[in-house]
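Lecture 7 notes: from sequence to structure.
We start with the chain below.
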Amino acid sequence: MLQVDASRGELPAAMRIIQHIDLRGKIVTGDALFAQRHLSTWIVESGGDYIWTVKDNQSELQEDIATLFTPQLCLPGFGQVQADFRTATKWNKEHGRLECRTLSASSMLTGFSNWPYAEQVFRLERYCQRVRDRKIRVEVRYGVTSLAASEANPERLLQYVRGHWQIENGLHYRRDDTLREDRCRLKGQGAHTMAVISNLILGLLRQQGITDVPTASRSYAANLDDAVRLVLQASS
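Predicted structure tokens for the same chain:
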């Protein structure tokens, strides 16, 4: 764990971590904050690959990707440009939601975009319907990767992107919201210590195969002997 300087943000801390990792054969995923030219270059030239979400912090790249996946309007006498779009779709039903993720990938910006080592770009549409009231939400995200189509087809890209957000939801959301780190008023070493404790709690629960963290937290809070046994079993 590396403490993040609040005045500088996560990006410099990420660079410090990456510089101490053997990136050969590894794939680094990140949200839009990490879609940076120097970071992309560093990863690929160190033997790894990247997959980034792209938002308006990289407005030119985002616009290029969005334009590429916008349906073509054909004028009379002109044909459509032949596209190489490849698509994968995945349905899930969990947590009271029916979700469909559709990822379309293309290599057509390779050589056109000046983004470092970009081999593919993609459009990810997430359709979500809440079972309780059938309320529908649709989200669209764009992304770029140094993985060529021969290395990662749409199905594989979808797995990588899904895996990244599972880390976000399974760790960071649980720390920030379920364990209420965002409401913690401690600073400095106190905040760092609480973050370590939060990681320990989630690690112990995962070892027990527990995925419902809120219910487990209430149960262990009401049965302190069980909580002590959980810690002692892990240390034995």
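Points to note: The first strand starts at residue 27 and ends at 30. The mean pLDDT is 84.
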